[in-house]
Amino acid sequence: MIQMQDVHKKYPNGVTALNGIDVKIEQGEFVYVVGPSGAGKSTFIKMIYREEKPTKGAILINGVDLSRLKDKKVPLLRRNIGVVFQDFKLLPKLTVYENVAFALEVIEEQPALIKKKVMETLELVGLKHKARMLPTELSGGEQQRVSIARSIVNSPKVVLADEPTGNLDPDTSWEIMSIFEEINARGTTVVMATHNKDIVNTMQHRVIAIENGRIVRDEEKGEYGYES
User: Which fold has domain 27-54+72-219?
Assistant: First the structure.
């Protein structure tokens, strides 16, 4: 599903974020990406949805080489990739329903199908009853649920999450993680960068540890391995 071959990333300021990454992630896997701050985790995630391009190496998503993908084809790629951010990135003037529907409107989905998909997805994340509220009327955990709903409403093959519980209290974090587990159980590949030691050690999945831009550990049912 996702393959990186000798991927390097050096930013214009001279910082080397990734240094010779080789990895394969299969369809349906749940993968945690862990490591110290500044290790290259966010860059790793950004590479997969072509927010950043590698300085060297190849990244294949479903056999498509992203380094050779024309810019006009990137929106088509991202239809199959959902992204969840730490800071939610919701549109503040749109309701919960409108934020989730927006992902379908930009690809010109039929209105009747948009309504069906949005309501089904809001039900999955437990927010069907708050469809008409604005993001400012929601708690942080509820806003993250909207962000997740927006990322999965188009039934992507891959969901990427960059510190999705970073701004949430422990109880809410577990609730959010149960949604990711459900998404993964439905066959979606989940790749999550996280600093949450308790979640990684309790809800065990494959762990890829990155330090100084290199993969130093790749374990099938791994543990966090760092002081939180």
Answer: Rossmann fold (3.40.50)
Contact indicator for 77, 67 with CB cutoff of 8 Å: no
β-strand pairing of 158-162 with 189-193 = parallel
Q: What are phi and psi of 151, to 5 degrees?
A: -75, -25
Instruction: Give the model's pLDDT for residue 106.
Output: 87
DSSP one-letter code for 94: S
More confident: 202 or 76: 202
Q: What CA–CA distance (Å, rounded) separates 12 from 2? A: 26
Grouping H, G, I as helix, E, B as strand and the rest as coil, residue 159 is strand
| 48 in Cβ contact with 61 (< 8 Å) | yes
Phi, psi (degrees; rounded to nearest 5) at 201: -75, -25
Residue 228 has pLDDT above 80, yes or no: no
Residues 161 and 166: their CA atoms lie apart, in Å, by 11
